[in-house]
Design goal:
Blueprint lengths: L19 H33 L5 H22 L2 H24 L7 H10 L5 H9 L2 E5 L2 E4 L7 E7 L2 E5 L2 E6 L4 E2 L1 H6 L6 E4 L3 E7 H10 L1 H29 L1
Antiparallel strand pairs: 1-8, 2-7, 3-6, 3-8, 4-5, 4-7
Helix pairs in contact: 1-2, 2-3, 7-8
C-alpha cells in the first residue's frame, strides 16, 4: 500500500533549510558573528584607555577618557551588562564635567580697568585669574577722616588703598605715606602681632579690605595663592621699611 504524505510548501522553498539542527547552527553562527563585531568596540575602548595613560595634558586626557568610556558604554549596552554600563556612564559624566571646567578656566580673563594699574605694579606675580579671585573676596568701601589703625591694637583686616593717601604715624611724627596700591596693616597680618604704628587719613579714602581669617583660610584652600599673597605683602612691607629708613636718614 502506498501512502502519500503531503509536503508543506512553506518549508520546502528553494534554498531554505528544513533541518532544525541546521537552523540552530545558523543562529549560533549569527550570534558569533555579531559578538565578533561588538568585541571590536570593547577593544577600541581599552585602546583609548591605554592612550590616556600616556597623555600629560589634562584636557586631552579627559577627552580621550570620554571617548574610551563612550565606547565601553556602547559595548556593555549591546551585551546587556547594565551594571558595568551604569558605572561607565557615571565616569563619562564626571569627565565631561571636568572638560567643561577646564574649558571655562581657559577662557580669557579681563582685569577691570580700575584695577589694571594695581595688578601691573603690585600683583603681577599672580595670574590674572588668581588676582580676580583675590580681588573678589575683598570688600570695597570708603574711610572717613581719622585713625584707621591704632598702635598696640590687634588687627583683623588687611587694607589696600585705592584712592587718597594715609600717613603712618609714630610718636606723633609721620614716618611714611601710603598711596594708591599700598597696603595697611599688612605687618600685623604677617607677624600676628598688634599694630606697631598709627595709620591716619586726613581726607576720605577709598579702600578694599580683606578679613585676615579669610586670607588665612586660603592656606588650606589654595596654598599656591596663599604663598603669592604672602610674597606680595612682604614685598610691600620691605618697600615701606626702605622708604621710611631713607626718609628718617634725610631728616636727621
Amino acid at each position: 500500500m502506498v501512502i502519500f504524505i503531503p509536503i508543506n510548501t512553506d518549508y520546502s522553498r528553494k534554498g531554505q533549510c528544513v533541518c532544525a539542527r541546521c537552523c540552530g547552527i545558523g543562529a549560533h553562527t549569527a550570534i558569533i558573528l555579531r559578538e565578533s563585531k561588538v568585541i571590536y568596540i570593547l577593544n577600541a575602548g581599552y585602546l583609548f584607555m591605554l592612550i590616556a595613560l600616556t597623555i600629560r595634558n589634562m584636557l586631552a586626557l579627559r577627552v580621550i577618557l570620554i571617548s574610551a568610556q563612550g565606547l565601553l558604554s556602547a559595548y556593555h549596552l549591546v551585551t546587556g551588562n547594565y551594571v558595568v554600563l551604569t558605572w561607565n556612564c557615571l565616569f563619562l559624566a564626571i569627565n565631561l564635567f571636568q572638560v567643561i571646567v577646564l574649558l571655562r578656566r581657559r577662557r580669557p580673563v579681563i582685569i577691570p580697568e580700575e584695577a589694571r594699574d594695581i595688578y601691573d605694579e603690585t600683583f603681577h606675580d599672580m595670574s590674572k585669574r588668581e588676582f580676580l579671585y583675590f580681588w573678589q573676596i575683598g570688600k570695597e568701601g570708603t574711610q572717613e577722616i581719622g585713625t584707621i589703625v591704632s598702635e598696640g591694637q590687634a588687627q583683623d583686616k588687611v587694607m589696600l588703598l585705592l584712592g587718597g593717601t594715609a600717613s603712618v604715624m609714630k610718636n606723633d611724627r609721620e614716618i611714611a605715606e601710603i598711596s594708591r596700591g599700598g597696603f595697611v596693616a599688612e605687618m600685623s597680618f604677617l607677624t600676628g602681632e598688634p599694630a606697631s604704628a598709627d595709620v591716619v587719613c586726613r581726607q576720605p579714602i577709598t579702600i578694599i579690605t580683606w578679613s585676615q581669617d579669610n586670607l588665612r583660610n586660603l592656606k588650606s584652600l589654595n596654598f599656591e595663592l596663599w604663598i603669592k599673597i604672602q610674597h606680595v605683602l612682604s614685598k610691600d612691607l620691605v618697600g615701606k621699611i626702605k622708604r621710611t629708613t631713607l626718609r628718617l636718614n634725610q631728616e636727621s
